[in-house]
């Protein structure tokens, strides 16, 4: 059901995925949930971090209505998705929602991506 150029059963190389993310201004690498939350100051602030619990998983951490949210961006099958749509990559998902101004809808909230939080040092 999903269009992809990769052969069936092929997953993107974890290192090439991370190499692309390292170029993004909002990517922080393997920081903790608490550290990520401490970087958020205002509604619309967001960043993406590597999950410390699950290898190859990426988490969007953002703030909406003064509440900090954490959304897994990759499903167990390795597909980058939101509740209602799939994406080619984590960057595609973030840029789509940031550029369109549409919130990412999750079970308990709608998270708008307005201001990327840049890492203080490159990962």
What are its keywords?
alpha+beta; four-stranded mixed beta sheet; two-stranded antiparallel ribbon; 3 helices
Largest sheet: 4 strands, mixed
Helical coverage, percent range? 10-25%
Distance between the termini: 35 Å
Structural class: alpha+beta
What sort of overall outline do the alpha carbons produce when their principal axes are compared?
globular
β content, as a range? Answer: 15-25%
Q: Provide a count of the helices.
A: 3
How many distinct beta strands?
8
Radius of gyration: 14 Å
H and E string: HHEEEEEHEEE
User: Reading side by side through the largest sheet, how are the strands ordered?
Assistant: 3-2-1-8
Low-confidence stretches: 1-10
User: What do the pLDDT scores average to?
Assistant: 85
Verbal overview:
By secondary structure, the protein is α+β, with helices and mostly antiparallel strands. It contains 3 helices and 8 strands, in the order ααβββββαβββ. The protein has a 4-stranded mixed sheet, covered by helices on one side. Strands 4-5 form a two-stranded antiparallel ribbon. A two-stranded antiparallel ribbon has the order 6-7. The protein is globular and about 35 Å long. 24% of the residues are buried. Residues 1-10 have low confidence and may be disordered.
